[in-house]
Amino acid sequence: CIMPDLTSLFVAAGLTEQKANETLKNKQVSASFAEAIELAKHTCEVDKSVGNLLYQISTRLKHKHHLPTIVSYVASKKLKTDIQLNCALDYLKNNPSMPLDESKFSEASGVGVEVSPAQIEDVIEKLVEANKAELLEQRYKFNTGKILMNARKLLKFADGRIVKSELDMQILDLLGPKSEADLEPASKPKVPYFVHDYKCMMRCIHMYLHCEGMYFNFDYRYAFYLLNNIGSYIEFSTSYIALMEEHLKITGGQVRTRFPPEPNGILHIGHAKAINFNFGYAKANDGVCFLRYDDTNPEKEEEKFFKGILDMVNWLGYTPYKVTHASDYFQELFDLAVVLIKKDLAYICHQKYEELKGINPPPSPWRNRPIPESLALFEDMRKGKLDEGSTTLRMKHVMEDGKQDPVAYRIKFTPHHRTGDKWCIYPTYDFTHCLCDSIEQISHSLCTKEFQARRSSYFWLCNSVDIYCPVQWEYGRLNLQYTVVSKRKIQKLIDAGIVRDWDDPRLFTLTALRRRGFPPEALNDFCAKVGVTGNLCILEPSMLEACVRTTLNNTAPRVMAVLYPLKVTITNFPNEAGSLDIKVPDFPADESKGNHVTNLTKSIFIERSDYMEIADKSYKRFASDQSVGLRHAGLVLTLERAEKSSKGDVVELFVTCKSVEDSPKPKAFIHWVSATSCLECEVRVYSRLFKHKNPEDTSVVPGGFVTDCNSDSLSVNTAARVECSVKKAKVFDKFQFERLGYFCIDPDTTDNTMVFNRTIPLKEDAGKN
Prior knowledge:
The chain has 26 helices and 29 strands. Residues 189-199, 201-205, 207-236 and 765-769 have low confidence and may be disordered. It is an alpha/beta fold.
């Protein structure tokens, strides 16, 4: 079979296995990539850096007869950077005929061009001097994008990161450290008061219509008339009422929400709140909730993330009414973009990404471009006639945070996991989000507070293309201390080998929490206790841990395990057969919930920490002069002698036993397991991954969050013992190891070795010894 061979070939060239499998779905790209790899192997070893360039060639090269030439340039290290490759591909696109003029090709691609640090320093120095007056006036609020844009023109083949670093250093030399005034946020353009009235009134109308007037005693048609006459700052669709009434006919007034994650990473604890709010609100109101993947960025999306998101939604106990994708509506979205252009509310722009960055980017010189010209160029974008990064479709709208003319469409010559090569332009979040909500007849668009700046854009866009407009409602995010949840930062921890993967139990991704043993009921309970407000909620993990303890206390059956075993031999064992069956309740506080049988034998293991040769006054467990009871066995042990190794360590205790009825009551009862009928297992104990509450705060952790990692956050014990009653348990089954904590069976468990993760310790009692 060809597929496994190609998968191995692509992985060896630097792709992840998931990305390799996604590439195989596109026969043209996979064939081109495989051919490029084989050609390159004649000259060099195809490592990740070479493989990355070859992959770009296979997805972007328009004329395949140039493949051997450009691959040879990459393999011979004549083309080493993304910038050089981009220039090479542009040249081949504009000069498709053969034979190739290699001297012109080399010149256009920057072959042999080396940009020295001195050259970069000289160019940046001149550009800073040219903008010195503005820099001194605006200081750190100056938009450095235009300097970087000019630097790119003068230093075409320089490393952009080095250029940016040099610019930052020279600006620091000129302006000195940031003052308090520099750290203040930039002032926003003043929004007329009636805009806020507009939003309030619009929400009231929306609520009135959905509640059939039960809670609002006013004529919504009159309110709508007022909205249309407030002013020209925001234009309200004249067909809004008709569209709303049509929406109500379609849905019957049903509450409809949606959970719209990007499939480019694993969900984390903050998403648990979003899932609970969206699905929970719909459920509480007899409504429905969609799971919609916002799959508009094909470069970062992988199949494992799609599956992982749905898996976590189901794990939390929710079933989507329907699973949809933004890509389901690519044609509808494109058609609506055309409507926007025809209304002169969008235009084709050629400003580069560097120019659009910053607080106050320069206005687009193409803003007043004729409508027919924008329509023609938008069609050229769709057909792949324009270069990636050269052109965007922008909307004529100012957002609440002052951002002007947000991008609606951009060019990406990357195959999509669902639509393949059908599209080479993809809509942005600002364009997609509200329109998909409208298409799916969502009634309540619930999102976190950072999207408040996009609210006016949400309303404006739906009304501009004259479609039903849901209302956006914002709530405060949930953040936990002692962790990071950014996809990019978690990937950095994985790449550095600090954590194993997205489900490493030290992380706060949902897959990690499941693997550690956190029950979904506890996460839902935690989200309910946190509640929904407009404020950012920052909590220590202890509140979540308390919910976990409460849930597991009622659901995790008790068993006995010994983490650091010390052998004990009972010299007067009360049964000649050398074995007794002991009935142990699964839940001692409620024995009606069931029990299991464990085996007591002449030789047992106890915790090494449960024995002390000479006990102090506060020590209550086993000692040379202090008896101890065995839990559930009804026996009290008294020491006869202790056997030691040549190093003086106690290796075995020889004891006698009496029944509890015939002995003075011991100060403590300890857990144990049979030495001859227990299971040897591996136990992993986790603690906090980071040392500080906010590892991303550079004022506290100047070296960055990676330097704040606790090197002792994982300890692995391969010599632990557990009673045999757990032998048939499944992955993710949870237990309370008596006196030790709550533990969960890890997916690494095999037929030969059980692996347990400590979910959480028992609530600490400082006076317990």
